[in-house]
Design goal:
This protein is of the alpha+beta class. The chain is built from 18 helices and 14 strands. It binds adenosine-5'-diphosphate. The site of adenosine-5'-diphosphate has 22 residues, from helix 15 and helix 18.
């Protein structure tokens, strides 16, 4: 065995594990030697009883020695559990030696008793190897010689056989030692083999575990739906943990853990446990499950633990143990993974490790699902609020439009009636013109609001494409705005042959918006230049002014709803709702065109707004609206003829 240890130390196979393995084998060998000794003692006892019956001298003394040896042998297994096999082996050898020596000394009438030294030498050889075998044979020969001489049985024949017997003992020691080398080599190889097998098993097991866990990680992240994620965690963890496994979700408001999904090899137990927990969801800190949530660490309860909250449930469900691990992610508790079993041996370290690894993978999945569910809830709330606002906008603008239309109609009627009787320069006529112009302004605002509410509510504004000459339309629009602002200089450069297929009224609306803005945002009265011309398959219209211009950071935003470049200051100074360009862009987009703005390149200040349209606007197919998503900004729907 010493050689064994030497070999072990020289090896690279994890000396400590090999040592443990060898110790295990030596204990097994020590137990075998003890068993052999017991069998021999039993045989000897039978023989000695027979001799005692014939009143053979010394038989009873030998029986006592055999009994002492047997008693020692019975105690050896217990000693092996507490002491190293090496120490037990040394004591056994000494006791065996003492027993044989006592027998040799006490019963001179049985000269062959010395042969039992051979067995002791064999034991020493098997335990400690060749060197120990030779040394023990020498020591025993010396003991034998001295005992024989002290015993006074030194007669001539005894002296003659003494060297032969000593030679036998030493020779036997050498042979037994050689034999032990073979045995020890076998033991050594066996230990290494066992170790390799155990290592391979461990490796296979850990690879399997790793693969399993990475598969579970994928499964857990398969869905963003919260309850589907709970189910996936329970389904994945169920087969590899205890008899039943349950996933609890954390209810932050109530400070409780709600059972969310259960599974496991014992489906009936899983269902019963879930039912039980649904009726009494554990509070944070209550029982092993609540404690896992409250302390963010693994907890275990046995049926003999007096853990409040678990004891009754465990008794009712017949559980021997519960193991609970927290599911954490992003510094938050998302739930608790609990597994339970009926086996009194408990979950063990392996299961704890596995449960923690599962919970580690479940955390991010639950966090994502939770975020998604929060987001959807918020989106639903925002959509509901937007819907209410859009409804309100639509109802209010509809309701305002009717009285406005009649005020406008009657004012125009009044103007026509009074035109003959009143001086056009009179105060009354001036007042009437103010009424008409303000009503016209209000109508435009209300029409804008109606357009916006249509875009927001239905995601669509109808356009009716038809063939017309854009050049004519531009001329008309410029003339109209010029009439309304007779003091302003509005120049027009327009090309020929600009027939397009588009919605005339809507394009007119866009032109009016751009022209009105150019006039409005040039408070010092600078010139406005309108250009219209063909560009290959497209037509382009630009409106430039030398007014206040738009700073670059606002340029992209002016096409957004309710956006005004200078915020409240701009609103106070120029009025308006910030809708004209939003609607204009929607109309141009609907025709498959493009609208833009920039600084006026021909002046130090001011802006240029322009749009391009394809000559043939066939209208765009309505983009699909994702379920639950925002409606698109604008969709064209052809009106049925
Ligand atoms: P409104 O003119 O009713 O405020 P619009 O949608 O027509 O709304 O315009 C949005 C914003 O874009 C305006 O508030 C203004 O700040 C800016 N804007 C539009 N046209 C011009 C322009 N020609 N020059 C300078 N700023 C402009």
């Amino acid at each position: 065995m010493l050689e064994c240890i030497a070999a072990m130390e020289a090896s690279n196979d994890g000396p400590r594990e090999l040592e443990a393995q060898l110790e295990m084998q030596m204990r097994a060998q020590e137990r075998q030697l003890t068993l052999a000794r017991l069998v021999l003692c039993a045989l000897a006892a039978v023989l000695l009883f027979a001799l005692m019956a014939r009143d053979t001298a010394g038989a009873s003394l030998l029986l006592a020695i055999v009994a002492a040896l047997a008693a020692w042998s019975v105690g050896v297994p217990a000693l092996l559990r507490r002491f190293p096999s090496r120490e037990v082996g040394i004591v056994s050898t000494v006791i065996e030696m003492a027993a044989v020596t006592t027998a040799v000394y006490a019963v001179p009438s049985a000269p062959d008793l010395y042969l039992f030294y051979g067995l002791v030498i064999l034991g020493a050889a098997l335990r400690f190897g060749l060197g120990a075998a030779i040394w023990s044979s020498i020591v025993m020969s010396a003991m034998y010689v001295s005992v024989v001489m002290v015993g006074g049985t030194l007669d001539r024949p005894a002296i003659e056989v003494l060297p032969v017997r000593v030679a036998y003992l030493v020779g036997f020691g050498a042979v037994a030692g050689m034999f032990s080398r073979i045995v020890i080599r076998r033991v050594n190889e066996n230990a290494r083999l066992q170790l390799r097998v155990a290592e391979e098993d461990r490796l296979r097991e850990s690879t399997r575990e790793r693969e399993l866990l990475s598969r579970l990680g994928r499964d857990f992240n398969q869905s963003l739906d919260l309850s589907a994620t709970y189910e996936a965690i329970a389904a994945g963890a169920g087969p590899i943990l205890g008899d039943a496994t349950m996933v609890f979700g954390a209810d932050d408001a109530e400070r409780r853990l709600e059972p969310a999904a259960a599974s496991g090899p014992d489906a009936a137990l899983a269902a019963a446990w879930r039912g039980w927990a649904a009726e009494r969801p554990p509070r944070l800190g209550e029982g092993a499950i609540g404690a896992a949530g409250a302390t963010a660490s693994a907890q275990e309860a046995r049926n003999d633990d007096a853990l409040a909250g678990d004891a009754a449930g465990m008794r009712t469900l017949g559980l021997a143990w519960i193991l609970a691990v927290p599911i954490l992610a992003g510094g938050r508790l998302h739930g608790v993974l609990a597994t339970a079993g009926r086996d009194a041996r408990g979950p063990g370290d392996g299961m704890l490790r596995l449960a923690e690894a599962v919970a580690e993978r479940a955390g991010p999945a639950l966090q994502n699902a939770q975020l998604w569910s929060d987001l959807q809830e918020r989106m639903a709330r925002e959509q509901a609020a937007t819907r209410i606002k859009d409804d309100f906008l639509s109802i209010v603008s509809h309701e305002l439009r009717t009285p406005l239309t009649s005020i406008q109609g009657y004012s125009q009627l009044l103007e026509a009636r009074l035109a003959g009787g009143f001086d056009p320069e009179s105060k009354e006529m001036a007042h009437l013109h103010v009424i008409l112009s303000q009503v016209g302004r209000m109508r435009r605002l209300v029409d804008d609001l109606l357009d916006v509410s249509r875009i927001d509510r239905r995601g669509a504004v109808s356009i009716e494409p038809g063939d017309f000459d854009l050049a004519d339309l531009v001329r008309e629009a410029v003339a109209r705005v010029q009439r309304e602002h007779p003091t302003r200089s509005i120049s027009l450069e327009v090309g020929e042959g600009m027939t397009i297929h588009a919605d005339r009224d809507r394009i007119d609306q866009v032109l009016s918006n751009l022209l009105e803005n150019a006039v409005k945002y040039s408070p010092d009265g600078g010139p406005v230049v309108v250009r219209a011309g063909g560009r290959g398959g497209e037509v382009e219209v630009t409106v430039s002014d030398t007014g206040i211009g738009i700073s670059p950071e606002h340029r992209e935003n002016v096409f957004e709803r309710f956006y005004q470049a200078d915020g409240d200051a701009g609103r106070r100074r120029f009025g308006g709702l910030g809708l004209g360009l939003y609607i204009s862009r929607a109309i141009i987009d609907a025709h498959g065109g493009r609208i833009w703005s920039g600084p006026n390149p021909e002046a130090d200040s001011g802006s240029v707004f322009g749009f391009r349209l394809p000559r043939v606007s066939i209208g765009l197919a309505p983009p699909a609206i994702a379920p639950g998503g925002e409606p698109p900004a604008f969709v064209v729907r052809r009106r049925e003829p």
